[in-house]
Structure formats: C-alpha cells, structure tokens
Amino acid sequence: MSARQMKLGLFLWATGHHIAAWRHPDAHVTAGIDIDHYIQLARTAEAAKFDMVFCEDAAGLREANVNIASQTSRSIGLEPISLLSALAVQTERIGLVSTASTSYNEPYGLARMFASLDNLSGGRAGWNLVTSASPIEAANFGSTGLRPHADRYERAREFAAVVTGLWHRKAAGHDGQSFSVRDPLDVPPSPQGAPVMVQAGASDDGKDLAARTADVVFSAAQTFEEAKAFYDDLKGRLPAYGRQPDDVKIMPGVAPIVAATKAEAQAKYDALQELIPDDVAVALLSSYLSISDLQRYPIDGPLPELPESEGMKSRQVLVIEQARRDGLSIRELARYFAGARGHWRVVGTAEQIADELQARFEGGAADGFNVMPSWFPGELDAFATLVVPELQRRGLFRTDYEGRTLREHLGLRRPA
C-alpha cells in the first residue's frame, strides 16, 4: 500500500467538458442553471471522497460568433460563489473552490466573499486566482482592451498579498500601487484558518506567483514529460520563498472516458467526437490561441505561424507544440482540443486509467488530478464507480475523509 495518496478534484462544467457534451443523447441541456443538477454532481463526488469540487468562471461568453445552441449550453450558468454557497448546505465534507479574477475584482470584497463562504461551509472554501486572459471579458468591464500579461501579473501579486493579509489578520491598512485598504476584514477566521489558495498559471509569471502564494496548482499537460517538467520547475521554485515541496499540491487536469472494455470506452469517445461542429471547435481553439481569424485559414491545412499571445501564454505554447509534434491540421487539432481544451485525455478500462494515473503520480509528475468528465452525469458516475474503487484497492486514494476541512483533506498546514 502506498503511504502517499493522490488528491482528486471534480471540475464542474454544466453539461460536461467535451465541447459536444450538450449534444449527447442523455445530456441535461439546461444543466448550467439547474441547482439540483449541481447538487447531484457534488454529492456523487463527496460519496466518492473527492477532495473538492471546482467551478471555473469567466465574466463573458467564451467564444464570439459561434453556434448559439452551443454557447447557450456551455457558457450560460450560475455565478460560482452563489452556486457554491448553495452546495455548502447540501454537502458536508467536500471542498468548494471557485475562480475569481484579480483583473475585475477588488481585494477587500473578494477576501470578504471567500471568507464568508469558508465560514458557511465549515472551512471548505478555496479561491482559484486568475488574471483573466480574454478580451471578451475585458470588454465587459469598461476596459479599452486586454491588459498586457506582465501588467496583469503585477496587479495579481499585490492583489494576492492584500487578500492573504486580510485572511491572516495581519496589521490593517494597505497603500500600494494598485490598491488601498483601510480596515481589517469583518468576517471571523474559519475552522481552516483561511481559504485554500489555488492557481493555474503556467507561464514564468504564473509559476512564480504560484510558488509564492498557492496551496494547489491546476495544470495542463499532454505527455508525462510535459507534466514532469512543470512539476519539477514549480516545486523547485518553492525554497526561494521559504516553502517546502509538500506545501503545494500540483493537480493536472485529466479527461477520462471509462468503460468495462477498452473498445467500449473508445466507442463512447468516438461517438462524442462525431457530434463536434467544426465551426465551434475552431472557434474554441481560436479563443485559447488568442487569434480572432483562424477561420480564414484552410481547415485541412497546418496551423499558421502565430504571434506571441498576451492571453493564455502557456496554453498557446502547449497547443502549438502538439500541432507541430503530431503534424495536425487545423481541423484535427481543433477536434482533439475540443475534447478537453488541451488537457490530458485517457480512454480505457478502470484498470488502464488507474495505471496511467498511478504512473504520473508515482513518477513525480502529479500530486493528484483535477478530473474533467466529458459529459455529466454519465462520465462522473463511471469514474466514481469504476476508477475510484480501483485506486482505493491499490492504496492510492482514501476510503474516507481524514478531517472536515479542505486543508485537512489536502494535507496542508493551517495558516499561523
């Protein structure tokens, strides 16, 4: 039995993470605004002893000029703090993590909001810090355009320092370059001391910010080598900030499709792939590459040379490297990307998927995984009933919660 056990998060996303999930015959098309749907997913994950559920957020529609049905099914949803507050009273142990942007919030209000969720849930809240890389979001907040990458991270560093100072009850008052805060927080500390800090940036600026402040890091990697390089890089930055390797849990995204046989799992994946509209897939790829006119290139031709992005730099590099490495056309790349937005995809039996997860976990490329089911609730149910018991049988995952707070689940120290 392994002494070290992996962590598992459930990445919530309306109908599912595959871009065509909304077209699946058993999909719940209005899932994004159905609280009962989310309660069911959270309870399934809690029964399987997941560490947390995670809600991404973007203050705007994800891709412009695409199929309206696709946008409605994938992008329309509930504001995540409101959603997690509802889930807090419908669950008992599972962690509740949400994205909130440092570009379009203010530190005092955000610190107060997450501290309130932390208290309401009995110490189960976490904040996923993002800097927001979409010009569509920027246009919704009176901005003249997307701020340069370096400027966004400069603001984020100060933002994180103010928020953690408020949570940790440091001396009141902050007068900095971007923010001024006078009063201490008016919400008491939670049972876990402070919400868990989560980040997902993979650029140098992103990894440096994570090494300074994050408790959990979500990442994307197609290959073991990519995952291992990211893991070693980030863990290697921690000593500079007086931190130990176990102070940060790195949890790459994984999109599993599981069935009783490999052939059945492959058939499930192939059926989803057949549901992808090409215009939607190319629009999704364009948004992550921060290029507005990818549609003007021949869809069966190669990905053109692209300028360096001011958006999601690390994801752009990952996608371009995959296209060049595998010789993919725009159509092939877009269809592959549509399955999990650049995250690792695994198709097979419970034993095969457990083998793959175990290899990355024990090979020093992950502390756990952020699970991204292709469609809900079907693939979550399959993972919970097939893969989780196999991981437990191998001693790689808990059979019951060790504590009540998210920090206890993750094995993180309580803040002083």
UniProtKB/TrEMBL annotation:
<keyword id="KW-0560">Oxidoreductase</keyword>
<feature type="binding site">
    <location>
        <position position="149"/>
    </location>
    <ligand>
        <name>FMN</name>
    </ligand>
</feature>
<dbReference type="GO" id="GO:0016705">
    <property type="term" value="F:oxidoreductase activity, acting on paired donors, with incorporation or reduction of molecular oxygen"/>
</dbReference>
<dbReference type="Pfam" id="PF00296">
    <property type="entry name" value="Bac_luciferase"/>
</dbReference>
<feature type="binding site">
    <location>
        <position position="99"/>
    </location>
    <ligand>
        <name>FMN</name>
    </ligand>
</feature>
<dbReference type="GO" id="GO:0004497">
    <property type="term" value="F:monooxygenase activity"/>
</dbReference>
<protein>
    <submittedName>
        <fullName>Nitrilotriacetate monooxygenase</fullName>
    </submittedName>
</protein>
<feature type="binding site">
    <location>
        <position position="57"/>
    </location>
    <ligand>
        <name>FMN</name>
    </ligand>
</feature>
<dbReference type="InterPro" id="IPR016215">
    <property type="entry name" value="NTA_MOA"/>
</dbReference>
<keyword id="KW-0285">Flavoprotein</keyword>
<keyword id="KW-0503">Monooxygenase</keyword>
<keyword id="KW-0288">FMN</keyword>
<dbReference type="InterPro" id="IPR036661">
    <property type="entry name" value="Luciferase-like_sf"/>
</dbReference>
<feature type="binding site">
    <location>
        <position position="203"/>
    </location>
    <ligand>
        <name>FMN</name>
    </ligand>
</feature>
<comment type="similarity">
    <text>Belongs to the NtaA/SnaA/DszA monooxygenase family.</text>
</comment>
<feature type="binding site">
    <location>
        <position position="153"/>
    </location>
    <ligand>
        <name>FMN</name>
    </ligand>
</feature>
<feature type="domain" description="Luciferase-like">
    <location>
        <begin position="19"/>
        <end position="365"/>
    </location>
</feature>
<dbReference type="InterPro" id="IPR051260">
    <property type="entry name" value="Diverse_substr_monoxygenases"/>
</dbReference>
<dbReference type="InterPro" id="IPR011251">
    <property type="entry name" value="Luciferase-like_dom"/>
</dbReference>
